[in-house]
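Input structure tokens:
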């Protein structure tokens, strides 16, 4: 099998219709279930987006101490559906049994960053949380596509896969879509063009060593380097790398609108078999020269999960930056491994 190709998963591409009454009568639509682990800022925005897009029914899960909070947020969102006209069941819960059989599991559980903290500072706090989530997912959602948002993403998604044993095509980390969106916005503002026409790609770990790939960045087919000066591009790259920290410094907590939209874009591509090419943290097994590591690379997400890893032809400078980013990711991943 060629590098970057994945074996199909038997259940990921299940048909969207099923028989009713033992095969009697017309087929009925099979509503999808999206379980959101963590009912905080990102979880709430995820639920709102999934409901508005009518991608499926939502389970908003949190710890027992926050059961009523999750239920209240779910009820508020369902009432919002009566105003906006979307049909989606949204249930708040602290029981994993309510998540059973989920088609998609999006994990936001954990402590968000505070001013002055790096993502790596969260390892000790969020590692036991991700392990608890992995155990629940393994028991109740064995066939779900899993998208991890909890920081530090690259290490947390690695631990989730290690602990569950789920195949790599069904366990992803959300970072590249968000980082690329930030890069895309900053480029559009500098070039004074529509953000819709900018195509940007950010690879590597979700940290200060991430790799905005200028050689793959275009504005409606025109290289960004033709429209923006080198010094301005360097400033944009630096701002992109610090994009999350900039928001933490302003709000006192992590971003949630753009991260939620990024995860939903990934989930939607899976649920609707859109086969979008998106940057995501995926388990590497030789691609780009790295093994046993989760790192952001371009992937095709379809009904089978991650269906292909795309290896870009990077410049020598970009390869050097990716190596530096991989070293940082490896360092934090080794901390997680040592704590196993």
């Amino acid at each position: 099998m060629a590098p970057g190709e994945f074996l199909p998963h038997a259940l990921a591409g299940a048909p969207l219709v099923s028989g009713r009454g033992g095969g009697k009568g017309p087929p009925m639509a099979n509503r999808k279930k999206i379980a959101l682990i963590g009912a905080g800022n990102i979880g709430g925005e995820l639920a709102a987006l999934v409901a508005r897009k009518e991608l499926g029914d939502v389970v908003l899960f949190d710890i027992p101490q926050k059961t009523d909070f999750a239920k209240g947020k779910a009820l508020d969102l369902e009432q919002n559906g009566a105003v906006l006209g979307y049909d989606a069941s949204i249930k708040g819960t602290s029981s994993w049994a309510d998540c059973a059989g989920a088609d998609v599991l999006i994990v936001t559980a954990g402590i968000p960053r505070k001013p002055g903290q790096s993502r790596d500072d969260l390892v000790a706090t969020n590692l036991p949380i991700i392990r608890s989530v992995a155990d629940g997912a393994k028991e109740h959602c064995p066939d779900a596509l899993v998208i991890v948002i909890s920081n530090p993403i690259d290490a947390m998604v690695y631990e989730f896969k290690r602990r569950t044993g789920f195949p790599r095509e069904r366990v992803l980390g959300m970072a590249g879509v968000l980082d690329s969106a930030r890069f895309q916005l900053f480029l559009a503002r500098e070039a004074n063009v529509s953000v819709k026409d900018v195509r940007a790609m950010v690879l590597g770990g979700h940290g200060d060593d991430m790799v905005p790939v200028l050689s793959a960045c275009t504005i409606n087919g025109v290289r960004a380097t033709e429209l923006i000066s080198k010094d301005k591009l360097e400033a944009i790259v630096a701002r992109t790398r610090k994009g999350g920290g900039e928001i933490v410094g302003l709000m006192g907590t992590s971003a949630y609108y753009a991260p939620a939209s990024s995860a939903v874009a990934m989930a939607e591509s899976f649920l609707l078999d859109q086969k979008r090419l998106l940057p995501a943290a995926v388990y590497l097994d030789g691609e780009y020269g790295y093994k046993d590591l989760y790192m952001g690379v371009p992937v095709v997400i379809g009904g089978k999960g991650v269906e292909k890893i795309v290896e870009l032809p990077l410049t020598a400078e970009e390869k050097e930056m990716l190596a530096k980013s991989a070293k940082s990711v490896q360092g934090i991943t080794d901390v997680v491994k040592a704590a196993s």
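The domain at 176-338 is CATH 3.90.110.10 (L-2-Hydroxyisocaproate Dehydrogenase; Chain A, domain 2). The longest helix spans residues 316-338.
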